[in-house]
């Protein structure tokens, strides 16, 4: 019997070690050694251009014309984006924009509706 910790997400006892990570085969959650359920509350706080805190599922509006990389298209000021998803990357917001498709945006160029 091994002394591996239970999964902090689904509490499964069937975890295994993969390099420097623990993996749960039931819910596919991965976490680092020494990380426990209490450490997951340290999420990055994402704020819009006005300082309002953004959450998953919020609706935002673009405050500046944005050039689309690799295209001659522009996302116009005032474009509304519904149901955003926050990610932990340089571009904080993952979303779908009507007429453009899947897109990643920086939070500094949007305001919460």
TrEMBL record:
Residue span, Protein YjdM N-terminal domain: 4-32
Domain of life the protein comes from: Bacteria
Pfam families listed in its UniProt record: YjdM (PF03831), Zn_Ribbon_YjdM (PF08274)
Entries under InterPro entries matching the protein: YjdM, YjdM_C, YjdM_N
Cited Gene3D superfamilies: 2.20.25.10, SH3 Domains
Classification via PANTHER family: PROTEIN YJDM, PROTEIN YJDM-RELATED
Family: Belongs to the YjdM family.
UniProt-recorded name of the protein: Alkylphosphonate utilization protein
């Amino acid at each position: 019997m091994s002394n591996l910790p239970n999964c902090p997400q689904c509490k499964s006892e069937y975890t295994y070690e993969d390099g420097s990570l623990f993996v749960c085969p039931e819910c596919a959650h991965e976490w680092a050694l020494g990380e426990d359920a209490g450490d997951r509350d340290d999420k990055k706080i994402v704020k819009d251009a006005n300082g309002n805190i953004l959450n998953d599922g919020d609706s935002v509006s673009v405050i500046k014309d944005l050039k689309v990389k690799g295209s001659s298209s522009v996302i116009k000021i005032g474009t509304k984006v519904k149901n955003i998803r926050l990610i932990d990357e340089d571009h904080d917001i993952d979303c779908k924009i009507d007429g453009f498709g899947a897109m990643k945006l920086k939070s500094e160029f949007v305001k919460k509706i």
